[in-house]
Amino acid sequence: MAVLQMRRVSICALKKDRKEILEKLQAMGVMEMSQILEEETDFQKMDTQGARNTFEKKAVLADSALDILQEYVPEKKSLLSSLEGKKLIDKEDYDQIAAQKEELINAASRITGWQKEMAECRANIQKLENQIEALTPWMSLDVPVSFDGTKSVKALIGTISSVMSLEEIYSLLAQYAPEAEEVDVTILSAERDATYVVVLCLREKAELVENALRQGGFAKPSQIVDEIPQAEKENLQNQIKSLEKQIQVCQEHIIEYADKREDLKLISDYFRARAEKYEVLGEIPQSYRTFVISGYIPEKAVNAVKKTMEEAYDLVFDVEEVKEDEDAPVLLSNNAFSESVEGVLGSYGLPKKGEVDPTFIMSFFYVFFFGLMLSDAAYGLVMFLGCFIVLKKFPRMEQGMHKAIKMFMYCGLSTLAWGVLFGGYFGDAIDVVARTFFHVDVPSTGLIKAAWFVPMNDPMRLLMYSMLFGLIHLFMGLGMKGYMLLKDKKYMDFFCDVIIWYVFLIGLILMLLPSTIFASISQIPAGTFPPAVSMIGKVMAIAGVLGLLLMSGRAKKNVALRLALGAYDIYNVTGWLSDVLSYSRLLALGLATGVIASVINQMGSMAGDGIFGAIVFILVFIVGHTLNMAINILGAYVHTNRLQFVEFFGKFYEGGGKPFNPFKLNTKYVDVKEETYL
After folding, report:
1. Is pLDDT above 70 for 324?
2. Are 559 and 581 in contact (CB under 8 A)?
């Protein structure tokens, strides 16, 4: 349960060592850059935008080449390949491949060039296919579409914008060009909205005939070619074959570069790292001979970094405390169990300055409540084994994913424990199978008795324990607030805002214990608690009310306003009541898992005990319990988060801290093996 202390570190070194120092800091990955440039100094910032753009373009070029290779030579990956994480390589191998950067970038350029050439070929093929489609209606024409006729005969080749028969065309000509008697019309083809025709007439009557045809929507072809349509189609098809062959050649060239895939991944990361280095370089104050780097390093890594840098370079390494007005980044440090829920805390917000890290306390409650909500031993065992196998099989998975899966593994163990306590093993599957297929006389307590009790048989008991666990959780949140106040030496606030609330709330609880309402809900006989319990509760409650009334508004000098604020604070006890009732979801989700599982088992057993019944039961069992486990894991996850975010954090925690973002090799494909400093 710790937020690592940060130190502000400033490094002043010779400009000739700038490149090596930056690369060394980037390889260490323990320093978040935060430059300070004082006014009126000789230090200036250099413009590195051009170099950054160049490196970023090369990284993008390598990524594009990898995408093209994946398209034509796909890597064989398993369904769980996304969990494998980045490949770990030695620094020597990284440097060796980086030395070939220009050759590899040229290879990436050739790959993308072939892809561009194929795209152009495909566009041309599409264009040629459109031309062939436009020629299709003219296939029966034995002269070029551009044919104009002979010396004395005019050939009018075109389309009429509707479907017309030969008789209708001749009627059109007779109506609008009665003088043109020597006319021959041939219909080549007809479509839904066009008729393709060849009209022959005397050349001196051509204008008259064409005007008559235009009355029916006649138009010259949009595509005029000097070849017979059939010959033109063959020419176009030959061009398409040539382009397809060109595409095939380009594909073969791309496939030949499949063995460059891993090198291209590494060189992409190399240029991405160079771009990030030049981004930092553009923020560094520099003079003619020196430069200054400033930023944050976790305290526990400062000495190691200082020793490494001073042994290798001539520089000044200055370490100082973080100032009060500085907003230092936040880096958490927890044990192997608690760090698994750091992602849950991060989704709410990291601790801001002055706050403690609640991860350690939260982790126990998180796993505890999750298991109670799911509460089936078989489901828990499946969760645990599944997550355990994934963690062992994929040790290189991304850190956030690793923590999340480890969290669910621990939640699986908690679910297994609660399932044993409540006697849930795929619901009542064992009893149903024994009764249906083996005709065993199952006792009312089941073949495997619950180590504690069965919630479906005694739901009120589970409700009382849920409320109790909720009170412990809420009181722990209030205790965390007290710890933070004591840590900041705010002793009066600790007494007024924590101790008085404890006295008030415990007094109310003690007053409730001997009441008939509590006896009816908890099934504890009335009179179990002596009258002194109620009397002590009343004294504590009254003392708490008076304390809150007088001290909640202690910052105000106006007596009336002070009392009003105190009364309002007392009213907040209703919020405590609603918070405690929120923990009834522990009962609701726990019962939901068991009830749905029992219904699935009963549905599966409805087909009887024969072979058919066994097949039906197995199918219903697998599908039903898979869905039930999935939806209840999701429900347990969501509602456990809510209990932490709303009820627990609401008592003491605000969050809003800035995560630690060190200058490091932010690679996409590989991790470079370096000496670790954290």
Report:
1. yes
2. no
Alpha carbon 392 to its chain's center = 23
Are 360 and 335 in contact by the 8 Å Cβ rule? The answer is yes
Q: Which of 62, 55, 67 is nearest to 264 (CA)?
A: 62
Cα distances from 313 to residues 330, 423, 664, in angstroms, run: 29, 66, 20
Please tell me the distance from the alpha carbon of residue 552 to that of residue 307, in angstroms, as a whole number: 52
Spell 523-535 as b/e; 16+ CB within 10 A means b: eeeeeebeeebbe
For residue 253, what are its two tokens? 């060239």
Q: Are 463 and 580 in contact (CB under 8 A)?
A: no
- Give every CB contact of residue 21 below 8 A, 6+ residues apart in sequence: 11, 13, 293, 309, 313, 315
Q: How far is CA 657 from CA 331, 501, 556, in A?
A: 9, 28, 30
CB 396 within 8 A of CB 88: yes
Q: Please give the C-alpha separations between residue 217 and each of 184, 194, 199, 364, in angstroms, as whole numbers.
A: 18, 9, 14, 84
How would residue 37 be classed by pLDDT, with cut points 50, 70 and 90?
Answer: low
Average pLDDT, the chain: 92
* Token duo for residue 412: 């699986």
Question: Could you tell me if residue 548 is left (phi over 0), alpha (psi between -120 and 50 degrees) or otherwise beta?
Answer: alpha
Residue 250 has φ and ψ, to the nearest 5°, of: -65, -40
Strand (E) or helix (H) holding 322: none
Please enumerate in sequence order all residues whose Cβ is within 8 A of that of 229, keeping only pairs 6 or more positions apart, or say none: 135, 138, 139, 141, 144, 145
Cα 138 from Cα 229, distance rounded (Å): 6
State whether residue 417 is helix, strand or coil: helix
Q: Whole-angstrom Cα distance, residue 104 to residue 330?
A: 39
Report the amino acid identity of residue 577: L
* Residues 98, 91: Cα–Cα separation, whole Å: 10
The total of other beta-carbon atoms located within 10 Å of residue 153's CB is: 14
- In this predicted structure, the answer to whether residue 494 has a pLDDT above a threshold of 70 is yes
Is the pLDDT assigned to residue 1 strictly greater than 60?
Answer: no
Residue 459 CB coordination number (10 Å)? 14
What pTM did the predictor assign? 0.87
**Token duo for residue 566:** 């105190």
CB 673 within 8 Å of CB 89: yes
Task: Please state, in angstroms and rounded to a whole number, the distance separating the CA atoms of residues 206 and 99.
Answer: 76
* Residue 62, CA atoms < 13 Å, CB-side half-sphere: 26
Q: Which residues contact 412 (CB under 8 A, 6 or more apart)?
A: 379, 380, 381, 382, 383, 384, 385, 386, 387
DSSP, collapsed to helix, strand or coil, labels residue 442 as coil
**Residue with more model confidence, 522 or 110:** 110
Beta carbons within 10 angstroms of residue 216's beta carbon: 19
Q: Residue holding tokens 């199918």?
A: 619
Strand arrangement of the beta sheet that strand 218-219 belongs to: 183-190, 195-202, 153-160, 218-219
Contacts of 236 (CB under 8 A, 6+ apart): 128, 131, 132, 135
Note the pLDDT of residue 88. 87
**Is there a contact between 287 and 42 (Cβ–Cβ < 8 Å)?**
yes
Return the SS3 of 190.
strand
> CA-CA distance, 31 to 13, in Å (whole number)?
16
As a whole number of angstroms, the distance between CA 207 and CA 145 comes to 19
